[in-house]
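In this section we walk through a basic example: taking a raw amino acid sequence and producing a predicted 3D structure, encoded as C-alpha cells. The instruction is simple. Fold the sequence below.
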Amino acid sequence: MSEVFAEAPERLSDEEALARFQNSTRQPKGSQLLGFQMLRVDQAKMEVEIGFDAGDRFGNPMGQIQGGYVCAMLDECMSVAGVVASNFTSVMPTLEMKTSFLRPAMPGRLRGIGRVTKWGRTVAFTEGELYDEAGKLVAKATGTAMPTPRAKFKG
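The resulting C-alpha cell sequence is shown next.
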C-alpha cells in the first residue's frame, strides 16, 4: 500500500475494531449529528457498515431526507472505511465525491456500507451505499480521498 502503513501498530481484530468504535467517547460532532453507530468492520474487504439515525430534523419540505445529509452519511461511510483500512493510522480527507440518488430517503434508520476499492500511493478510491429500513438502496457514491497520517493532519 503506502507509507501510511509504514509504522502501523499491530492490527486489531474485526471485533476489536468494532468495539473501538462502539466504546468511543470522542465521536466527532458531525458523526453524532448523523446518529452514527458502527455495525460491522471487515478489514479483509476494507469495508464497514454503519447505522444512521435520520430523524425529521434532516427533512426537506417534502418530508424526505435532504440530499446533503445523504451525502454526508455516504462520505462518513467511505472515510471510515479508509480509516479502518489504514489500521487507524490515517484520516481520509475527501478530494472528490459523486453521488447518485436512486429513491427518496425517508426519516428513520438508514444503513450505510463503505469500502475502499483501491489504495494507491497517494490516493484511495472508495464506494458507499445507503439503504433504507426496508433494505432498499436509496443512494450510491464513489469518492477519492487522500490518506493522511494522523501525525501530519493539521485539521
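Looking at the output, two observations stand out. The first helix runs from residue 14 to 22. The chain is about 20% helix and 35% strand. In the next section we compare this with other chains.
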